[in-house]
Design goal:
The complex is a heterodimer of chains A (216) and B (178).
Chain A (H helix, E strand, L loop, with lengths): L1 H24 L11 H11 L3 E11 L7 E10 L3 E8 L3 E5 L3 E5 L5 E5 L4 H14 L6 H4 E8 L2 E8 L1 H4 L2 E8 L3 E8 L4 E11 L5 H8 L1
Antiparallel strand pairs in A: 1-2, 1-11, 2-3, 3-4, 4-5, 5-6, 7-8, 8-9, 9-10, 10-11
Helix pairs in contact in A: 1-3
Chain B lengths: L4 H7 L28 E11 L2 E12 L2 E7 L5 E7 L4 E5 L8 H11 L2 H7 L5 E5 L2 E6 L2 E9 L7 E6 L4 E7 L3
Antiparallel strand pairs in B: 1-2, 1-10, 2-3, 3-4, 4-5, 6-7, 7-8, 8-9, 9-10
The chains are: A alpha+beta (216), B mainly beta (178).
Chain lengths: 216, 178
Amino acid sequence: MTVTILAASINQRVMLGIICLALLIGVAAIPPAQAAPVLSRLTARLDQAGVIHADFTQTKTLQALKRPLRTSGRLVFARGQGVLWLIEKPYQASYALSAERVTEIGPDGARRVRAAREVPALAQVGRVFQAIFQGDIKGLEEHFEVTVSGDAERWRVELAPKPALARFLNGINARGGRFLDLIEIEEAQGDRTRIEFRDSRLDVPLSEAEARLLRN
Amino acid sequence: MKYGLVSLALLAGCASDPRCPDIPGGPRYCLQASSAVAPYVALQDIRIRRGDLDERLIAQLEVDAAGMHLAGLTPMGQRVLEAHFDNRVATAGSLAGDRFDARALLSLVQIAVWPADSVRAGLGEDWQLDDAPARRRLLRDGTSILEVDRVGEPPRYQLLNIHLPDAGLSLTVRAIDE
Protein backbone atom coordinates (compact mmCIF):
# COMPACT_ATOMS: atom_id res chain seq x y z
CA MET A 1 0.00 0.00 0.00
CA THR A 2 2.86 2.30 0.81
CA VAL A 3 4.20 1.76 -2.66
CA THR A 4 0.89 2.63 -4.25
CA ILE A 5 0.41 5.75 -2.20
CA LEU A 6 3.93 6.83 -2.84
CA ALA A 7 3.68 6.32 -6.55
CA ALA A 8 0.40 8.18 -6.67
CA SER A 9 1.88 11.12 -4.83
CA ILE A 10 4.81 11.24 -7.14
CA ASN A 11 2.60 11.02 -10.16
CA GLN A 12 0.47 13.88 -9.00
CA ARG A 13 3.34 16.21 -8.47
CA VAL A 14 5.41 15.24 -11.43
CA MET A 15 2.41 15.38 -13.68
CA LEU A 16 1.67 18.86 -12.53
CA GLY A 17 5.14 20.09 -13.25
CA ILE A 18 5.34 18.47 -16.62
CA ILE A 19 1.89 19.50 -17.71
CA CYS A 20 2.57 23.06 -16.74
CA LEU A 21 5.80 23.02 -18.63
CA ALA A 22 4.33 21.34 -21.64
CA LEU A 23 1.26 23.50 -21.72
CA LEU A 24 3.41 26.52 -21.68
CA ILE A 25 5.56 25.26 -24.45
CA GLY A 26 2.29 24.85 -26.23
CA VAL A 27 1.47 28.46 -25.95
CA ALA A 28 2.37 28.82 -29.57
CA ALA A 29 -0.47 26.52 -30.43
CA ILE A 30 -3.31 28.20 -28.65
CA PRO A 31 -6.23 27.86 -31.03
CA PRO A 32 -6.64 31.05 -33.00
CA ALA A 33 -10.19 31.39 -31.83
CA GLN A 34 -9.01 31.72 -28.25
CA ALA A 35 -5.59 33.24 -28.60
CA ALA A 36 -4.66 36.74 -29.42
CA PRO A 37 -4.04 37.30 -33.13
CA VAL A 38 -0.42 37.84 -32.38
CA LEU A 39 0.03 34.14 -31.87
CA SER A 40 -2.04 32.91 -34.74
CA ARG A 41 0.73 33.31 -37.28
CA LEU A 42 3.12 31.45 -35.08
CA THR A 43 0.61 28.67 -34.65
CA ALA A 44 0.26 28.32 -38.36
CA ARG A 45 4.01 28.21 -38.79
CA LEU A 46 4.48 25.44 -36.27
CA ASP A 47 1.44 23.60 -37.49
CA GLN A 48 3.08 23.11 -40.86
CA ALA A 49 6.30 21.73 -39.48
CA GLY A 50 6.81 17.98 -39.50
CA VAL A 51 9.90 18.05 -37.32
CA ILE A 52 11.04 20.67 -34.84
CA HIS A 53 14.46 20.70 -33.21
CA ALA A 54 15.54 23.09 -30.48
CA ASP A 55 18.36 23.24 -27.97
CA PHE A 56 17.46 23.94 -24.37
CA THR A 57 19.08 24.96 -21.12
CA GLN A 58 17.06 24.28 -18.01
CA THR A 59 17.96 25.99 -14.75
CA LYS A 60 16.23 24.66 -11.70
CA THR A 61 16.53 26.80 -8.60
CA LEU A 62 15.35 25.11 -5.45
CA GLN A 63 14.48 27.42 -2.63
CA ALA A 64 16.46 25.39 -0.13
CA LEU A 65 19.66 25.07 -2.15
CA LYS A 66 22.23 27.72 -2.79
CA ARG A 67 23.31 26.48 -6.17
CA PRO A 68 20.90 25.93 -9.06
CA LEU A 69 20.91 22.75 -11.10
CA ARG A 70 21.55 23.45 -14.75
CA THR A 71 21.01 20.93 -17.53
CA SER A 72 21.14 21.31 -21.27
CA GLY A 73 20.18 19.26 -24.25
CA ARG A 74 17.83 19.02 -27.18
CA LEU A 75 14.10 18.88 -27.76
CA VAL A 76 12.87 17.06 -30.84
CA PHE A 77 9.26 16.92 -31.95
CA ALA A 78 8.31 14.63 -34.83
CA ARG A 79 4.73 14.89 -35.94
CA GLY A 80 2.89 11.63 -35.51
CA GLN A 81 5.91 9.90 -33.97
CA GLY A 82 6.55 11.50 -30.63
CA VAL A 83 8.79 13.79 -28.66
CA LEU A 84 12.41 13.43 -27.53
CA TRP A 85 13.73 15.26 -24.46
CA LEU A 86 17.47 14.67 -24.63
CA ILE A 87 19.55 15.80 -21.65
CA GLU A 88 23.23 15.97 -22.60
CA LYS A 89 24.96 17.92 -19.81
CA PRO A 90 26.01 17.59 -17.05
CA TYR A 91 24.58 14.09 -17.17
CA GLN A 92 22.91 12.12 -19.88
CA ALA A 93 19.31 11.04 -19.94
CA SER A 94 16.96 10.63 -22.86
CA TYR A 95 13.22 10.34 -22.93
CA ALA A 96 11.16 9.25 -25.90
CA LEU A 97 7.53 10.10 -25.31
CA SER A 98 4.67 8.81 -27.37
CA ALA A 99 0.99 8.24 -26.80
CA GLU A 100 1.53 4.55 -26.09
CA ARG A 101 4.78 4.42 -24.15
CA VAL A 102 7.62 6.23 -22.46
CA THR A 103 11.18 5.08 -23.04
CA GLU A 104 13.99 6.26 -20.77
CA ILE A 105 17.51 5.70 -22.03
CA GLY A 106 20.30 5.98 -19.51
CA PRO A 107 23.92 6.96 -20.11
CA ASP A 108 24.87 3.31 -20.44
CA GLY A 109 22.31 2.82 -23.21
CA ALA A 110 20.02 0.80 -20.99
CA ARG A 111 16.42 1.26 -22.07
CA ARG A 112 13.45 1.23 -19.80
CA VAL A 113 10.22 1.00 -21.73
CA ARG A 114 7.00 1.56 -19.88
CA ALA A 115 3.47 1.53 -21.10
CA ALA A 116 1.85 4.91 -20.88
CA ARG A 117 -0.58 3.63 -18.27
CA GLU A 118 2.33 2.73 -15.98
CA VAL A 119 3.82 6.22 -16.08
CA PRO A 120 0.93 8.56 -16.69
CA ALA A 121 2.94 11.62 -15.79
CA LEU A 122 5.62 11.15 -18.38
CA ALA A 123 3.20 9.79 -20.92
CA GLN A 124 1.24 12.97 -20.51
CA VAL A 125 4.23 14.88 -21.73
CA GLY A 126 4.11 13.09 -25.04
CA ARG A 127 0.40 13.63 -25.43
CA VAL A 128 0.59 17.29 -24.60
CA PHE A 129 3.58 17.94 -26.79
CA GLN A 130 1.87 16.23 -29.68
CA ALA A 131 -1.21 18.29 -29.11
CA ILE A 132 0.80 21.45 -28.80
CA PHE A 133 2.69 21.28 -32.00
CA GLN A 134 -0.27 19.99 -33.92
CA GLY A 135 -2.27 22.96 -32.81
CA ASP A 136 -5.10 21.16 -31.10
CA ILE A 137 -4.66 22.32 -27.52
CA LYS A 138 -7.95 23.43 -26.10
CA GLY A 139 -7.34 23.05 -22.43
CA LEU A 140 -4.98 25.89 -21.68
CA GLU A 141 -7.67 28.31 -20.66
CA GLU A 142 -9.28 25.67 -18.49
CA HIS A 143 -6.30 25.88 -16.16
CA PHE A 144 -4.94 29.41 -16.58
CA GLU A 145 -5.88 33.01 -17.06
CA VAL A 146 -4.00 33.79 -20.24
CA THR A 147 -2.54 37.21 -21.01
CA VAL A 148 -0.82 37.81 -24.34
CA SER A 149 1.18 40.88 -25.28
CA GLY A 150 3.60 41.99 -27.99
CA ASP A 151 3.47 41.07 -31.64
CA ALA A 152 4.12 37.96 -33.70
CA GLU A 153 7.84 38.66 -33.85
CA ARG A 154 8.23 39.38 -30.16
CA TRP A 155 5.46 38.00 -28.03
CA ARG A 156 4.98 37.33 -24.34
CA VAL A 157 2.43 35.17 -22.58
CA GLU A 158 1.61 35.15 -18.91
CA LEU A 159 -0.30 32.29 -17.38
CA ALA A 160 -1.92 32.83 -14.02
CA PRO A 161 -3.15 29.56 -12.54
CA LYS A 162 -6.78 29.14 -11.70
CA PRO A 163 -7.59 27.99 -8.15
CA ALA A 164 -7.11 24.28 -8.76
CA LEU A 165 -3.49 24.86 -9.71
CA ALA A 166 -2.75 27.89 -7.58
CA ARG A 167 -1.80 25.87 -4.53
CA PHE A 168 1.07 24.36 -6.51
CA LEU A 169 1.96 27.11 -8.88
CA ASN A 170 2.44 30.87 -8.71
CA GLY A 171 2.64 31.47 -12.41
CA ILE A 172 4.25 30.78 -15.74
CA ASN A 173 5.71 33.23 -18.20
CA ALA A 174 6.86 32.57 -21.73
CA ARG A 175 8.28 34.69 -24.44
CA GLY A 176 9.49 34.17 -27.93
CA GLY A 177 9.60 35.37 -31.48
CA ARG A 178 9.83 33.01 -34.37
CA PHE A 179 9.76 30.18 -31.87
CA LEU A 180 9.57 29.80 -28.14
CA ASP A 181 12.61 31.41 -26.48
CA LEU A 182 12.00 31.16 -22.76
CA ILE A 183 9.79 29.55 -20.18
CA GLU A 184 9.79 30.53 -16.52
CA ILE A 185 7.83 28.52 -14.00
CA GLU A 186 7.43 29.64 -10.41
CA GLU A 187 6.07 27.05 -8.04
CA ALA A 188 4.11 27.96 -4.95
CA GLN A 189 6.78 26.75 -2.54
CA GLY A 190 9.43 28.89 -4.15
CA ASP A 191 11.18 26.59 -6.59
CA ARG A 192 11.79 28.15 -9.99
CA THR A 193 12.44 26.62 -13.39
CA ARG A 194 13.82 28.55 -16.31
CA ILE A 195 14.08 26.87 -19.71
CA GLU A 196 15.81 28.73 -22.48
CA PHE A 197 15.37 27.50 -26.04
CA ARG A 198 17.71 28.45 -28.82
CA ASP A 199 18.67 27.49 -32.32
CA SER A 200 15.21 26.18 -33.15
CA ARG A 201 15.03 24.45 -36.52
CA LEU A 202 11.86 23.55 -38.36
CA ASP A 203 11.81 20.65 -40.79
CA VAL A 204 15.39 19.52 -40.30
CA PRO A 205 15.01 15.77 -40.84
CA LEU A 206 15.35 13.38 -37.96
CA SER A 207 18.79 11.89 -37.59
CA GLU A 208 19.10 8.15 -37.71
CA ALA A 209 19.66 8.05 -33.96
CA GLU A 210 16.62 10.21 -33.29
CA ALA A 211 14.45 8.10 -35.55
CA ARG A 212 15.65 4.97 -33.79
CA LEU A 213 14.84 6.43 -30.39
CA LEU A 214 11.35 7.26 -31.54
CA ARG A 215 10.80 3.85 -33.12
CA ASN A 216 11.74 1.77 -30.10
CA MET B 1 6.10 6.24 -11.49
CA LYS B 2 8.19 4.57 -8.87
CA TYR B 3 11.38 6.49 -9.44
CA GLY B 4 13.46 4.96 -6.73
CA LEU B 5 11.44 6.36 -3.94
CA VAL B 6 9.86 3.02 -3.42
CA SER B 7 13.21 1.71 -2.34
CA LEU B 8 14.00 4.80 -0.43
CA ALA B 9 10.68 4.66 1.32
CA LEU B 10 11.41 1.16 2.37
CA LEU B 11 14.87 2.20 3.37
CA ALA B 12 13.79 5.02 5.61
CA GLY B 13 11.14 4.47 8.19
CA CYS B 14 9.63 6.62 10.84
CA ALA B 15 11.95 7.72 13.57
CA SER B 16 11.35 9.38 16.87
CA ASP B 17 14.73 11.02 17.42
CA PRO B 18 15.08 14.10 15.22
CA ARG B 19 18.74 13.41 14.54
CA CYS B 20 18.75 9.62 14.54
CA PRO B 21 16.51 8.48 11.67
CA ASP B 22 15.94 4.77 11.35
CA ILE B 23 17.55 2.91 8.48
CA PRO B 24 15.52 -0.28 8.14
CA GLY B 25 17.94 -3.09 7.51
CA GLY B 26 20.78 -0.84 8.57
CA PRO B 27 22.40 0.50 11.72
CA ARG B 28 21.04 2.98 14.19
CA TYR B 29 22.99 6.14 13.45
CA CYS B 30 22.72 9.64 14.90
CA LEU B 31 23.75 12.44 12.57
CA GLN B 32 26.99 14.18 13.40
CA ALA B 33 27.94 17.81 12.95
CA SER B 34 28.74 19.02 9.46
CA SER B 35 31.92 20.60 10.79
CA ALA B 36 33.48 17.13 10.60
CA VAL B 37 34.13 17.76 6.90
CA ALA B 38 35.12 20.80 4.86
CA PRO B 39 32.22 22.53 3.10
CA TYR B 40 31.42 21.02 -0.28
CA VAL B 41 28.75 20.69 -2.95
CA ALA B 42 28.20 17.50 -4.90
CA LEU B 43 25.95 16.66 -7.80
CA GLN B 44 25.38 12.94 -7.97
CA ASP B 45 23.76 10.38 -10.23
CA ILE B 46 22.22 7.72 -8.03
CA ARG B 47 21.06 4.33 -9.17
CA ILE B 48 18.90 2.38 -6.78
CA ARG B 49 18.42 -1.34 -7.03
CA ARG B 50 16.23 -3.54 -4.92
CA GLY B 51 14.93 -6.79 -6.29
CA ASP B 52 13.42 -6.09 -9.67
CA LEU B 53 13.50 -2.36 -9.04
CA ASP B 54 16.16 -0.34 -10.84
CA GLU B 55 15.66 3.42 -10.68
CA ARG B 56 17.63 6.61 -11.12
CA LEU B 57 17.74 9.83 -9.16
CA ILE B 58 19.81 13.00 -9.51
CA ALA B 59 20.86 14.42 -6.15
CA GLN B 60 22.46 17.67 -5.12
CA LEU B 61 24.16 17.78 -1.74
CA GLU B 62 25.34 20.95 -0.05
CA VAL B 63 27.40 20.76 3.13
CA ASP B 64 28.68 23.74 5.07
CA ALA B 65 29.22 24.82 8.64
CA ALA B 66 25.50 25.35 9.13
CA GLY B 67 24.55 21.81 8.19
CA MET B 68 23.74 19.66 5.20
CA HIS B 69 21.01 19.78 2.61
CA LEU B 70 20.08 17.14 0.07
CA ALA B 71 17.64 17.44 -2.81
CA GLY B 72 16.66 14.58 -5.07
CA LEU B 73 15.23 15.10 -8.53
CA THR B 74 14.20 13.01 -11.46
CA PRO B 75 16.62 13.29 -14.39
CA MET B 76 14.06 15.57 -16.03
CA GLY B 77 14.33 17.92 -13.07
CA GLN B 78 11.26 17.35 -10.94
CA ARG B 79 12.10 17.53 -7.26
CA VAL B 80 10.95 14.44 -5.45
CA LEU B 81 12.59 14.75 -2.04
CA GLU B 82 14.55 17.02 0.26
CA ALA B 83 16.36 16.44 3.53
CA HIS B 84 18.01 18.98 5.79
CA PHE B 85 20.13 18.80 8.93
CA ASP B 86 20.97 22.03 10.75
CA ASN B 87 23.39 20.28 13.11
CA ARG B 88 20.65 19.94 15.68
CA VAL B 89 17.54 18.61 14.00
CA ALA B 90 17.04 16.70 10.78
CA THR B 91 13.96 17.41 8.71
CA ALA B 92 12.77 16.03 5.42
CA GLY B 93 10.01 16.20 2.90
CA SER B 94 9.08 14.15 -0.08
CA LEU B 95 6.22 13.69 -2.44
CA ALA B 96 5.16 10.88 -0.18
CA GLY B 97 4.67 13.24 2.73
CA ASP B 98 4.96 11.64 6.16
CA ARG B 99 5.11 8.21 4.60
CA PHE B 100 8.67 8.76 3.47
CA ASP B 101 11.50 9.83 5.77
CA ALA B 102 14.28 11.08 3.53
CA ARG B 103 16.47 11.88 6.52
CA ALA B 104 17.94 8.40 6.32
CA LEU B 105 19.70 9.50 3.14
CA LEU B 106 21.65 12.03 5.19
CA SER B 107 22.70 9.21 7.49
CA LEU B 108 23.93 7.17 4.55
CA VAL B 109 25.91 10.14 3.26
CA GLN B 110 27.62 10.57 6.61
CA ILE B 111 28.30 6.87 7.05
CA ALA B 112 29.87 6.76 3.60
CA VAL B 113 31.82 10.01 3.71
CA TRP B 114 32.32 11.43 7.19
CA PRO B 115 35.61 10.74 9.04
CA ALA B 116 35.65 7.38 10.78
CA ASP B 117 35.79 8.84 14.28
CA SER B 118 32.77 10.95 13.58
CA VAL B 119 30.83 7.98 12.21
CA ARG B 120 31.76 5.89 15.23
CA ALA B 121 30.43 8.64 17.48
CA GLY B 122 27.09 8.34 15.75
CA LEU B 123 26.75 4.60 16.11
CA GLY B 124 25.28 2.63 18.98
CA GLU B 125 27.62 0.72 21.28
CA ASP B 126 26.93 -2.64 19.68
CA TRP B 127 28.13 -1.51 16.26
CA GLN B 128 31.63 -1.62 14.86
CA LEU B 129 33.04 0.35 11.96
CA ASP B 130 35.64 -1.37 9.83
CA ASP B 131 37.29 1.48 7.94
CA ALA B 132 39.69 1.46 5.01
CA PRO B 133 40.17 4.07 2.25
CA ALA B 134 38.38 2.01 -0.38
CA ARG B 135 35.88 0.18 1.78
CA ARG B 136 33.84 0.67 4.89
CA ARG B 137 31.76 -1.88 6.70
CA LEU B 138 29.41 -1.59 9.61
CA LEU B 139 29.23 -4.76 11.63
CA ARG B 140 27.15 -6.04 14.47
CA ASP B 141 28.14 -9.24 16.24
CA GLY B 142 30.69 -9.80 13.52
CA THR B 143 28.10 -9.65 10.75
CA SER B 144 28.38 -7.04 8.02
CA ILE B 145 25.18 -4.99 7.93
CA LEU B 146 26.20 -2.12 5.67
CA GLU B 147 29.03 -1.96 3.15
CA VAL B 148 30.41 1.04 1.29
CA ASP B 149 32.92 0.74 -1.55
CA ARG B 150 34.59 4.03 -2.40
CA VAL B 151 36.51 5.24 -5.44
CA GLY B 152 38.17 8.63 -5.57
CA GLU B 153 38.91 11.20 -2.94
CA PRO B 154 36.75 12.39 -0.09
CA PRO B 155 34.39 14.03 0.34
CA ARG B 156 32.90 13.86 -3.17
CA TYR B 157 34.26 10.49 -4.27
CA GLN B 158 33.89 9.52 -7.89
CA LEU B 159 31.92 6.44 -7.01
CA LEU B 160 30.20 5.07 -3.94
CA ASN B 161 28.57 1.67 -3.80
CA ILE B 162 26.39 1.35 -0.74
CA HIS B 163 24.98 -2.06 0.01
CA LEU B 164 22.60 -3.16 2.74
CA PRO B 165 22.40 -6.94 2.42
CA ASP B 166 19.55 -7.45 4.88
CA ALA B 167 17.41 -4.95 3.03
CA GLY B 168 18.54 -6.26 -0.37
CA LEU B 169 19.24 -2.69 -1.29
CA SER B 170 22.11 -1.24 -3.31
CA LEU B 171 22.82 2.38 -4.17
CA THR B 172 25.40 3.34 -6.75
CA VAL B 173 26.36 6.99 -6.39
CA ARG B 174 28.40 8.55 -9.18
CA ALA B 175 29.75 12.08 -9.02
CA ILE B 176 28.60 14.27 -11.88
CA ASP B 177 31.25 16.59 -13.27
CA GLU B 178 29.90 20.04 -14.00
